[in-house]
């Protein structure tokens, strides 16, 4: 997060200097936002390596795993923007928190080696703040309506990506593992900005964004029988959609 902040300061300073030379009028801004996020379901690949005889391997895919419900989000934003005629160019850093500290998933599986339902796998993860660095390009259609597009990248750290696998077949085995990683992704969206009447420094925004998270989640666990090995891997296709409103203070 510190590196992203330094990058934002440097890029904003360069943008402000170039904008001033080109005759653009610019200002710094701060804002707060709130809205909703909803996720796509994703497939999960599970591989089981049995000890004897011969280290038999079983692989299967569990579909529709994940939290597809909408969650409340809130955040802060800061940046710099410049205007020339009806055009607007800006750069911003966004820090958002999602109200889904734990994304859990539970599913049963059939192991052909045992010839029956062998048990279930359950997992959960804790998501930290999502930090995004984005650019905004807009065109003022009228004094009270400025549509824009947003493009950029974002990162979040995911802690305790863990799962528990329970196999009731003989010998009974339990596997547990955890991990942590950083998820990088791209963000793109559209929105509109409206000035607040009687206060030139305030403006309201409404926007929709698409967030792509392409990183795989891989976890490996050794079962309690000290022989069976479980691996679980997300297919990397999960994405997120957000809709939010923001109140922005412009330092004119």
Protein described:
With 252 residues, the chain is mostly beta strands. The protein has a single domain, classed as Porin. Helices cover 8% and strands 67% of the residues. It is built from 1 helix and 15 strands; from the N terminus they run αβββββββββββββββ. The protein has one helix at residues 2-21; strands spanning 25-39, 42-49, 57-65, 71-84, 87-98, 105-111, 116-127, 130-139, 146-167, 173-177, 181-196, 199-213, 218-222, 229-234, 239-251. The strands form 2 sheets. Strands 1-4-5-8-9-11-12-15 form an 8-stranded antiparallel beta barrel. Strands 3-2-14-13 form a 4-stranded antiparallel sheet, with no helix packed on it. β13 (218-222) and β14 (229-234) form a beta hairpin. It comes from Candidatus Berkiella aquae.
Question: Keywords, please?
Answer:
signal, 1 helix, Porin, mainly beta, four-stranded antiparallel sheet, 252 residues
Present the secondary structure layout.
Elements: H1 2-21, E1 25-39, E2 42-49, E3 57-65, E4 71-84, E5 87-98, E6 105-111, E7 116-127, E8 130-139, E9 146-167, E10 173-177, E11 181-196, E12 199-213, E13 218-222, E14 229-234, E15 239-251
Antiparallel strand pairs: 1-4, 1-15, 2-3, 2-14, 4-5, 5-8, 6-7, 7-9, 8-9, 9-10, 9-11, 11-12, 12-15, 13-14
Domain Outer membrane protein beta-barrel: 8-218
Main location: membrane
Pfam families: OMP_b-brl
